[in-house]
Amino acid sequence: MKRFATCLILLITGATLLGCGRQVEQELDDWMRRASRDLRGRVEPLADIHTEQPYRYRPDGLLSPFDPQKLLLAQRQANAPDFRRPREPLEHYELDKLQMVGGIRRSNEAYGLVRTPDGSVYRVQLGSYVGANFGRVQRIREDGIELIETVEDLNGDWVQRLATLRLDGPQEQKPQ
Q1: Cα 130 to Cα 28: distance, rounded to the nearest angstrom
Q2: Phi, psi dihedrals of residue 136, rounded to the nearest 5°
């Protein structure tokens, strides 16, 4: 008897679910028809197709990117001084015409005092340019000012050398 009751319950439940499933499916189909009745698809027009003009590479007279001469040229330009930079007043004199006459220390910053041939005295600090050979102040000591000059050698390469402007004495230059 229990088996019969269980089978009967399962049969009734299955029929109910089957009937509900058909009704839900019918309602869904009706809703889809109503919702899509007023829809009209719009497709945006495609953008104009732009055709590239072919470029013809003509290597006549150009350096190959694999040529060692190109690397040498790039190295020369990398070491060259900046010619577009405005020159500072002490760059108008040769280094041997300038003379260090003293130094000042203010707020833990050192300054050097440099006299020009006409008797004017200028104050320099780290990074200042001094002399005609693009000399840049690297260090200021009590007895001298150390500079790194950028000069062109016999091969046309720009090289740097160390120069020192001594206090009341001649300066020395050493290749670097």
Answers
A1: 89
A2: -120, 130
d(CA 50, CA 82): 43
CA 7 to chain centre: 80
Is residue 150 within 8 A of residue 79, CB to CB? The reply is: yes
User: For residue 27, what pLDDT band results from cuts at 50, 70 and 90?
Assistant: confident
User: Which pairs count as long-range contacts for 44-49, CB under 8 Å and 24+ apart, including other chains?
Assistant: none
* pLDDT tens readout for residues 115-161: 999 999 999 999 999 999 999 999 999 899 999 998 888 877 788 89
Long-range CB contact pairs, 134-138, < 8 A, 24+: 134/81, 134/91, 135/91, 135/95, 135/163, 137/112
Distance CA 28, CA 49 (A): 43
Q: Strand, helix or coil at 166?
A: strand
Q: What is the DSSP letter of 58?
A: -
Beta-bridge mates of residue 144: 166
Q: Which long-range contacts (CB under 8 A, 24 or more apart) does 116-120 make?
A: 116/89, 116/90, 117/93
